[in-house]
Amino acid sequence: MSMGEEAYGCATPKGIMRLLEGYGIELAGKHAVVVGRSPILGKPMALMLLNANATVTICHSRTQNLPALIKQADILVGAVGKPEFIKAEWIKDGAVVVDAGYHPGGVGDIELKPLVDRVAAYTPVPGGVGPMTINTLIYQTVDSGEKKIG
Questions:
Q1: pLDDT at residue 150 above 70?
Q2: Bond preceding residue 131 cis, omega within 30 of 0
Q3: What's the pLDDT tens digit per position in 30-67?
Q4: Which pTM does this prediction carry?
Q5: 127: alpha, beta or left, given left = phi > 0 and alpha = psi -120 to 50?
Q6: Kind and range of the H or E element at 78?
Q7: What are phi and psi for residue 85, nearest 5 degrees?
Q8: What is the arithmetic mean of pLDDT over 113-142?
Q9: Which of 27, 110, 134, 143 pairs with 99 at a CA distance of 20 to 30 A?
């Protein structure tokens, strides 16, 4: 890649950022907790949130005292890859909850059902992050093609 060329973000975290932006979720100054450290989801998600001026904590399945760290999150992104690994009781009222997991039976990485009436916003599973991933991939593909042609 030559200098000055635009790079495209990983589709799932970029889709999550577009979703947060679309709903007017303020990120600057907020404490975001990303549970997951994969190179295509957790790590780029954390960096995108950091670039949006959030304070970011990256956790994973082996993080000590994980419930206490999650309880601090204004914005929580579950990307750990384990069904309902993140328990509803760990999440504070009024948080924004993004579940990037999908497992058989239509459940994500976060125990969502007990949360729906006490959080500011949440992504459903299925139907939340997945469609945004696909939308972002298509958007980036079309954008790249138009730049190549134009």
A1: no
A2: no
A3: 999 999 999 999 999 999 999 999 999 999 999 999 99
A4: 0.93
A5: left
A6: strand 75-78
A7: -65, -40
A8: 96
A9: 143
* First-to-last C-alpha distance (Å) of the chain: 18
Domain ranges of the chain: 11-143
Write the single-letter amino acid at 61. S
What per-residue confidence (pLDDT) applies to 5? 67
Rounded CA-CA distance 41/100 in Å is 9
CB 96 within 8 A of CB 20: yes
Which amino acid is present at 147? K
Given a cut of 90, whether residue 6 has pLDDT beyond it is: no
User: Is residue 81 left, alpha or beta, with left meaning phi > 0 and alpha meaning psi from -120 to 50?
Assistant: left
Phi, psi at 149, each rounded to 5°: -75, -45
pLDDT at 1: 43
Strand partners, 77: 34, 98
Residue 24 φ/ψ region, left for φ over 0, alpha for ψ in the -120 to 50 degree band, beta for the rest: left
Run of H or E residues at 21: helix 11-22
